[in-house]
Amino acid sequence: MPKNPALIFLAAFLVNNILLIRYIGLCPFFGVSTSLNTAFGMSAAVMFVMILAAWVTWFIFHIVLVPLNLIFLRTATFILVIAALVQFVEMFLKKSYRALYSAMGIYLPLITTNCAILAVTFLNIDYRHNLLQATIFALGTGLGFALVIILFSAIRERLDYAPITRSFRGYPIAFIAASLVSLAFLGFIGLFGLSL
Amino acid sequence: MIQLRQMNKKSSRLKYLTNGIILENPTLILMIGLCPTLATSITVRDGLGMAAAASFVIIGSNVVASLLRRLIPATVRIPIFIIIISTFVTLVDYILQAYEPGLYQVLGVFVPLIVVNCIVLGRVEAFAYKHNVLDSMLDGMGKSLGFTLVLFVMGTIREVLGSGTFWGRPVTPAWFRQYPILLMILPPGAFILIGILKALLNKLMKPGS
Amino acid sequence: MSQSKVYMVLSLVVICLISAFALAQVYTLTKAKIEQAKIEAVMNALSQVLPNAISFEEKESSRVWFGYDKNGNKVGIVFQVMPRGYGGPIGTLVGVDSTGKITGLRIASPAEGLKETAGLGLRVREDWFRNQFINKTKNELRLKKDGGTIDAITAATISSRAVTNGVREGLERYKKYWSNDSTSPNE
C-alpha cells in the first residue's frame, strides 16, 4: 500500500474506489442515487462522518486499545464510535446549523450502517497509517464515494426516461449501469504505478 | 379445534424459515447484504466461507436479542443490538483467525464488516426484538439460507466462467482455462451478474407482458 | 420494561461488560492457536521450496532461512525476494541447495498480498512457470528474450521478468549462505 499521501489519495479516490472496485458501501448507493439532490446530500454527510470517524477511531485505537492490550475490542468500539458520532453530529446540526441539518440530516441515521465508514476505519489500522495518512485516506475514499454516487445519480435520472424491459427496470438496470462505470474505473489501474 | 390451531401455528412457524430462502431472500428481494455478496463470490469456497461466518452472526444475534428482548429498553435498543452483534462478529473473527487463516485472509475486511451487514441489524430490529426465541432462530436460519443460496449461485457462475474451476478443481477444458472470461472475477462482472439474476427473479415473480 | 434513565444506562453498561468479558475469554483461548497457525504457514511454505529439509532456522528476519535434515545437517537455504512486478512486490520464496541449484520456487498468493493482474501476471504462480526454475544455475536465470532459458508468460513480460531477475539477484546476494563455508564455487 502506498505511503506517499498523494498516492494514498489517488488510490482511495480512483484506483481502489470504494464503491466500484472494493464493493463497499453499496446498500445506500443504490437506494440514494436516484436523484442528484439526494446524492449530493448523502455524499456530504458521508464525507464528513468518514473523516471524523477516521480521526476518533485512530486515536482510540492507538491511545487506548493498543496500550491496554484490548485490540480484540476493535470491532465493537469502532462501530459504537461511529454510531455515537452520527448521533452527536445530528444533534449538533439540529441545534446550530438548521439549514444544513434539513439538507443532509435525513441521511445521517443511514450512515451508521454504511459499510464504507467502518471499512475506512479498519483499513487505516490494517495499512498501518499514521494520522496524516489516515486523514488523506478518509478524504480520498469519501470523495471517491461522492464522485461515483453523483455520477451515478445523473445516469439514473436519465435511465428513468429510457424504455427498459419490465424485468430489468429498477435495480437490474442500475446494476448493469454500475458495471459499465466500474469497467471504466478499472482503467485507472497502473496510474502512477498504483494497482488493485 | 385446538388441533387445527396447533397445525396452523406449525405451518406459520415453518414459514419463518422458508420465507428467507426465496420470497424474502435478503440479497435479491430485500436488497440488503449486497457488499459481501459481490465481494466474496469470486470463488465458491470463499463465498460459502463468508456465508458460514455471516450465518453464525445472524442466527446468534437473533437468538440472543430475542432472549433478552424483554430486558432491553426500547430507547437504547440499537446500541445494545450493535454490542450483541459485534460480540458475535469478533467471535467469528478470532475463530477464523485460529482455525481457517487462509479463508480469513481472503475475506479480509469483510469479516468485521458483517457487523454493519444490513441483514443482521435489520432482522434483529425488525424481527428478533418482537418474537420469541424459536421463531427468531428460524427467521435467522431462513435468511441465512437465502443469503447462502445467492452466494453459492454467484460463486459458481463466477468461478466456473471466470477461472474455469469449481472449488479450486478444474471443470472446464484446458483451452478454456487458458483464457477464461476474466470479466466474471472482476468488479464489473459481479455487477452484471447480480443485475441479470435480479432481472430473472423479477421475471419469474411477475410473469406476463 | 423500565423506562427510567438509570435502567437505560445500567442495561448498556451490563451488556458492555458481558460482551467485553466474553470476548476477552475468546481472545485468550485462541491466541495460542493463532500464533501457531502463523508459524505453521511459514513452515509449510519453506518446506515447499526445500523439500529435503525437515527443520528450519531463520537467519535473516523474513529473508533467509537455513534448512536442516533429520540429522541436523544443513541441506540448503531458503531466501525471500520481493521484486517489483506490474502491480506491486511479488513475494517469492526460493529454495537453494548447497551447490547453488534451485530446489523450488513459491510465489505469494493474492490472499497473501500479491497484486498481479488476474489472468496475466498472476499466472507466474502456475506450476509450469515455477518448475522452470528448478535445478537451474545463475547464468540460466534470464528470460529467453533476455538471453536465458526461462519462458515468460504470454503478455505478462513484466511480471515474468521481475520474478526471474529477482531470483537471479537473490541467488547472488545470498551466495554467502548457500555456498559451502570453506570454498566459494564459481557459478
From TrEMBL, chain A:
Pfam family, one: Rnf-Nqr
Gene Ontology, cellular component aspect: endomembrane system; plasma membrane
InterPro entries the UniProt entry points to: Ion_transpt_RnfA/RsxA (IPR011293), NqrDE/RnfAE (IPR003667), NqrDE/RnfAE_oxidrdctase (IPR050133)
Listed transmembrane segments: 6-32, 44-65, 71-93, 105-125, 131-152, 173-194
Keywords: Cell membrane, Electron transport, Membrane, Translocase, Transmembrane, Transmembrane helix, Transport
Cell compartment(s), UniProt: Cell membrane; Endomembrane system
Membrane association type: Multi-pass membrane protein
GO BP annotations, alphabetical order: electron transport chain
E.C. no: 7.-.-.-
Role this protein plays: Part of a membrane-bound complex that couples electron transfer with translocation of ions across the membrane.
Entries under HAMAP family matching the protein: RsxA_RnfA (MF_00459)
Self-association and partners: The complex is composed of six subunits: RnfA, RnfB, RnfC, RnfD, RnfE and RnfG.
NCBIfam families for the chain: rnfA
Family that this chain belongs to: Belongs to the NqrDE/RnfAE family.
Name used for this protein in its record: Ion-translocating oxidoreductase complex subunit A
Gene: rnfA
UniProtKB/TrEMBL annotation, chain C:
Chief location bin: membrane
Family: Belongs to the RnfG family.
One Pfam family from the record: FMN_bind
Job description of the protein: Part of a membrane-bound complex that couples electron transfer with translocation of ions across the membrane.
Modified residue annotations for FMN phosphoryl threonine: T157
Oligomer status and interactors: The complex is composed of six subunits: RnfA, RnfB, RnfC, RnfD, RnfE and RnfG.
GO cellular component term of the entry, any: plasma membrane
Name of this chain's protein: Ion-translocating oxidoreductase complex subunit G
Entry keywords, A to Z: Cell membrane, Electron transport, Flavoprotein, FMN, Membrane, Phosphoprotein, Signal, Translocase, Transmembrane, Transmembrane helix, Transport
Membrane topology designation: Single-pass membrane protein
EC number(s) reported in the record: 7.-.-.-
One annotated GO molecular function: FMN binding
InterPro entries, alphabetized: FMN-bd, Ion_transpt_RnfG/RsxG
Location(s), subcellular: Cell membrane
Keyword Cell membrane set for record: yes
One of the protein's GO biological processes: electron transport chain
Annotated organism of origin: candidate division WOR-3 bacterium
Cofactor: FMN
Phylogenetic placement of the source organism: Bacteria, Bacteria division WOR-3
Residues in the signal sequence: 1-24
Origin superkingdom: Bacteria
